[in-house]
């Protein structure tokens, strides 16, 4: 049944949809006007559906008798939730946006529940039926909603705890938590006497412990190594040191399996301390690699020697914009162990000047491969 | 992502068969429609995760910027989370077994335990993602970053949907609102859950252990 | 046959229904009451009846056929003369992209889905599909996908990367409009629809067959649909991955196809064609299935080599997963891969050939009736043979490097798809129209329709072979005199012929539409067994009742219906009639089963589809919209789960139903 | 619900006893332990093959026992393993064309 | 059931089908000398392909005629003439098996030849010359690495027209700067995609001197239709002359000439993207183009020897006017070398198109050079924008460009 109230809102939806489409076609599809009109249409539709659901909130249309016989259900706690939401929204406005969004969610959730609850209470004089109606209207939201909240709470608090403790104790806490959950499960399953009150106590204790630890951890922040890592950004290309010695972060755990073999223009080898290269399509070894300018080109480096090596590409020098200091330009691969490969993808925008030819070299090995960028 | 996964639920409980085929008429194979559908879905999911895993395998070493896989993987931690997920498969199968014995209390207990273990696994993944991000691996940093987060993120979404299904199933069982064969519904969600677990078995080996 | 007006009755009477309840359920429950309408628009919107859904699929798909056809005509107009000025380069690129996408995903697949939905349960003697609500969901998701795809025309331009949307050209820099985003979302959603539909139909075939109908007694159409659904189940997730990667790149800055990060664009091609090649068989096999019904019916002979046709269909499906890289012979796979895929591609020609031989041999020795349906079926065999043979020239990889991406390949796949699939579908229209609507399409108009389409089709696509071999690449918004060649039979001549042909083809299709309109105005009812048909779908009224069969048939033969009508005359080994189809159908009515329960209509599939669409739009228009969509999806899926498939008493205004003691009113 | 291959006369319709599941879980846990040990102990050339084998064993055990494929109808196995087999085939082939497996 | 009608139409059908098939072979094979005809090989590689085409096309034709002929006969013969409903036989397995084996055998034969052809075409062992080919929206760049055997002592860079010596096995190493393109000179070989990030190999070899047309055949965006190229095969001596000309140093136009003024316009405008090797700024420092800062894909055609080529803008437009153009294109293989090497003289220049291009390039060829669409590429153009040059500037520029021989 389409109720009169909902008709107005659906009408509004239709009108604003048409307006929005016209606006987009005639005026501008991308600006705020269209968004606003679509927003109007959406909210009209939402309110309309809500009105439909609650029959315009008017439960007493048909029979006075229902009103007379209506039995109030148990007192609702949804107003409290609603109020809590409002409080959170206000707090959020003053403090952090996360709290604000959380508050909005609680507000909407509480509001919807409250409305439906109220509506169902007046649906008939039969309490059982009213509960049935309420369940039909709301349980499709309640089940997944509560489940998602449960998942979110656990995942959030648990991750805060692990982020706060040291890297070594993370796994220990993890396994301990899992073991506790599992053991409690086994205990309850195997010992029937633990049911009832004990279970409740355990559950309450667990929730309090998790929430407490999580809140504490969230407030105390992440462990300082993580903060420092975020600050320093060890792995950024600007930290690369291309010498023969190992750098602390960049070369750490360097030997990586490479899977780029299908797309390399050339492969540079180090064998017995000497550098040589092979290029796709060339039958002989090459001492010059030509790559087009401004073109992303991958070069593979394969170390056949016992000691670790890295491939360095020298791309002349350039002025640093701010300071005016002339610096060498280039980049390099990680240190690579025996029979390991590394791939570098280069995009060189400028041809080399005569005085500063480009080249590939390997610190600690002899020979260089010329790099020509026509 | 969510849209792909939601129809799991649908298969699980859409049981029009008994009615549509008329009374007393068993299905041609003697098997349940829902279970057939679930297995087909899982067969299909093999190709979904296969594609994501292959993408990761192809791109794992392609790092222009930011960390390489073995530089940031925290194998002890991931080992624990793999172990937790594996054990949640045990608790899941216990739930199925209880449901087949029509023991609602125990079914619900094991469902809860499974969901809790799954939720801590997700917590672990939230931790891992946060830590990796702090160390310099963003979604857009490198091919490794994009393919790693896509693969494990997809898996994480599957686990999350699983947890939501488990927790709501508890509620639905408790309220007696289940619309089909209860044991079968638990079994179907169990199949989904185990599948998510075996995907992680593969991810754990191919993604985490092998590059080290 | 129309004595049983649709009414729903509850399957159970919950204790909740309280005699004291003074309000009727609709008053008390408001919109929370589930839909029980059996007529009016609500009956269509919330239906879970496979026949209604099938008709809706057909109507919507045919609409998209017209949309895609108009796009094709614009393309041909642009190319009729050198330096065409009908379309700009940008619009032309959008046009051919959307023509391909629309025809494949919004016309061919859904039309096959229409036939499958309607006839598969009927052919196996089932009352509905295994998951009626999922069936409705598939349909609504398909609508959502189609609308999103085509909405892009009005929201800043459609996708312009070609239907296989090669990366990196489809990336954010090279395709800056939102067209590709809509394309991704549209396909993703339509893909989910197909995936759900395919799972549904597989389970239906496996589980819902009538007693006695073993797999090898199933009609070939059902078999081919089964193979197609398996192909879909296992190929759709692959394109899902590809689309997700592209979506992440376009919308969230991921690097999957960013070459400067070391990415390899061939990844997209592999993922796309691992899906795309089985997809080709998804398109063609339903057509094969349809004519495998039509040819025997009108030849009065069973399909020659039924098991071979079935197994060749299955093996085409299986081998179809191993030949995808033949779309990439020019992309630099290396000689070993090319050789392997070249050989595999040749191998797939063998089962395809088996099918053609079997169709021809089916007619050999028959007593052939050249109705419109039969003409289209014959057209399919001829045109598909030509398309198949030009396909063999592509399997020769070196030869393919000259032909691929020229008009020769355009000619090839239009012979295969238009000749092979569209002709099959039209054959199906003529064959099954009386079953669905109870009226025969006009045979004379059908003949016009057929001949115009055959001529138009050959005029349009035939010259493209020559254009391609003369070196005209595909996907060019203009061609110029400079490369057109000399003499009379150059690009200019053939392009013009092709463009004229396309309009002849369009007129042919127009005749079909006229035929439909004319037929709908004609009050004359079709006989119940107009073709002297062979399979179970004819063992019921036309159109079938909502529960399909009054009595679930028991099957003893392949072509059960035919064998109920005829038996072999020992004397001369010909067949003699032992019963009339109409009588058999009346007899079924008299022996109707009691107490049939059918699933009730539902809001949830439609709502869920809307939720998915909103969720998808959130990818383009921002996270808040996505959150709204996700909430709707969650709500709808749980509402669905909590809803019993058969309505409860509470949903009916008058629970004590108006006195059918024997619950054979279609739904009760 | 009836199953064609109802072989176990257990309390359940099919599958195994709870104790059986626990045993399987213990074996799985042990294999996982072994897998993790490859991170600490150098397995040399056995590293890759052993990890792959352990992965496959775990996979098959979960699928066969926890997911009941071993006890259930062969149709389920068919549906699942066809998907798995196709996935392995197409993706391994595709990776091979990228020269993924060439050392 | 109007059977008479059907008999007639089915016999029509037979005639039509046969005529169509024969028509295909005849018309496609020897029709009209289209520049991109795929059946007129002019070099070894294309010949290998053509040999295979001559196997598979006739085979397909014969099979088609046989099958459809038999089908037509069936359609005719078993029309319903009141015969009884035939026995419901389900076929004969032996027929099935035979009909499976025959195509399998035919395909095996084709397969063997195909297999051999694939590996013959993939051979790169005996390469005599290497050229790097880079695709970009919507033109091709060629760079010839230094290779002493060919007399190339320093890298040569060119665009649009690929110049190769006759009888030499030339290996193209293809790649792309942006999207996937495909390099296709039908007379010399099949197509091979230019995939960004990959190097794909394509062997070309021309038997005789000549101009061989080609076109990008992988859809590459807006102006895909306008992305063309030519391969020009020159005799060994002519090729040596061409190389010598390409390596010639830059000669500045005479002071005071219109061309000199054009040089300064060039230095003001064009040099931002287009390199002319050896061009110096007013202060005597080398003028270096930095297309990377202006063009998304990071390159623009090198114009050092623009007038040695006879097309421009992705080989879409002729630099030669109509009569000079046909003089070169229609030249015999003996005379074509000399005519091509003559380049573009002032009298032969196709000034209309060149001037229109300089006036407003995007109007000539659809490109993403529209300032309104720069957001997605980070403010960089794809293709040449409208520079807003005055007519006098254009006069000067044309005069200058004519000096770039």
The biggest sheet of chain E amounts to: 5 strands, mixed
Calculate the terminal CA-CA distance of chain B, rounded to whole Å. 30 Å
CATH class of chain B: Mainly Alpha
Structural class of chain E: alpha+beta
Q: Please, how many helices of chain B?
A: 8
Element order, helices and strands of chain E? HHHEEEEEEEEEEHHEEHHHHH
Radius of gyration of chain B: 19 Å
Q: What distance lies between the first and last C-alpha atoms of chain E, to the nearest angstrom?
A: 76 Å
The count of β-strands of chain E is 12
Average pLDDT confidence of chain B is: 85
Residue windows where pLDDT falls under 50 for at least 5 positions of chain E: 1-8
Number of domains of chain B: 1
CATH superfamily of the largest domain in chain E: Cupredoxins -  blue copper proteins
CATH overall fold name of the largest domain in chain E? Immunoglobulin-like
Oligomer: heteropentamer
The total beta strand count of chain B reads: 0
CATH architecture of the largest domain in chain E: Sandwich
> What is the gyration radius of chain E calculated from CA atoms?
28 Å
In which order are the strands of the major sheet of chain E placed?
3-2-1-5-8
- Strand % of chain E is 5-15%
Quick structural gist:
The complex is a heteropentamer of chains A (374), B (212), C (668), D (103) and E (405). Chain D has three helices and no strands.
What does this structure look like?
The complex is a heteropentamer of chains A (374), B (212), C (668), D (103) and E (405). Chain A has helices at 4-26, 32-53, 64-69, 78-94, 97-121, 127-164, 169-190, 197-220, 224-232; strands at 264-271, 274-279, 288-290, 297-303, 312-319, 326-332, 340-346, 358-361, 368-372. With 374 residues, chain A is of the alpha+beta class. In chain A, the strands form two sheets. Chain A has a five-stranded mixed beta sheet with strand order 3-9-8-5-6, with no helix packed on it. Chain A has a four-stranded mixed beta sheet with strand order 2-1-4-7, with no helix packed on it. In chain A, helix 1 packs antiparallel against helix 2 (32-53), helix 4 (78-94) runs antiparallel to helix 5 and helix 5 (97-121) runs antiparallel to helix 6. Helix content of chain C is 61%, strand content 1%. In chain C, strands 1-2 form a two-stranded antiparallel ribbon. In chain C, helix 4 packs antiparallel against helix 5 and helix 18 (604-621) runs antiparallel to helix 19 (623-642). The two termini of chain C are 16 Å apart. In chain E, strand 1 and strand 2 form a beta hairpin. The longest helix of chain E has 34 residues, at 44-77. Chain E is elongated. Mean pLDDT of chain E is 89; it is low at 1-8. The chains are: A alpha+beta (374), B mainly alpha (212), C mainly alpha (668), D mainly alpha (103), E alpha+beta (405).
